[in-house]
Specification:
The complex is a heterodimer of chains A (82) and B (163). Chain A is α+β, with helices and mostly antiparallel strands and 82 residues long. In chain A, 27% of the residues lie in helices and 30% in strands. Classes of the chains: A alpha+beta (82), B alpha+beta (163).
Amino acid sequence: MVKVLFFAQLKELLNCDGLNLNVECPQTVQSIKQAIIAENPNWAEPLNQATIMCAVNQAMVDNQHAVEHGDEVAFFPPVTGG
Amino acid sequence: MAHSTPSEHISVKVQTEDFDIAHEYSLMRENNTQDGAIVFFSGLVREMNQGQDVSGLFLEHYPAMTEQSLRDITEQACTRWPLSRVRLIHRVGQLHVTDQIVFVAVSSAHREAAFEACHFIMDFLKKRAPFWKKETTSKGDRWVEALEKDQNALDKWDTNETK
């Protein structure tokens, strides 16, 4: 089981701040994203934006990063702090 | 050559409250016999939409990640440059035009390291730290878009960043 979080504009577009995903692990971030879309097909466009960033266990990762059971996976738009 | 700064001289805070630059600066100077240079940056909320009534800026963040992300960035700077002290504060929540958002202060024996490290920390914070700004106006809210110049700003620091 993987804990998924959404932030900022992505959270608003999906109207969802997070969910628990029951999937086989390890899987890449990219395939985790596709698993989420398989359960929520109308989320495909916002989640597939090339600019969407990802953090696993609070560290930035790329789409090829391997996600393990129990990981916290966060998806969000490009950051705009500072 | 990798440098390191004792952790008791690195201060990183994420908070809703405003901060006092004079107080932070005094902490950089206190009992500091080694440093000839202190450089600091402060980021402010500015009027972004001419003609539109911008009542303020809401800073959303990823609570479990923000402080650690800022610590990682300061540690990278401390490895790259000989810094004695670093103080970093980033505010979250509802802010208004002219409010302070972020403060970065670094000290070093000489000015080159201090100027560069402060610049580096801000460039990395803009690209990596999990905050998102939302303009709040009387006509509705609007998420601020990340600027291409910020996405490309890391290039000049010649790191192995892939994204």
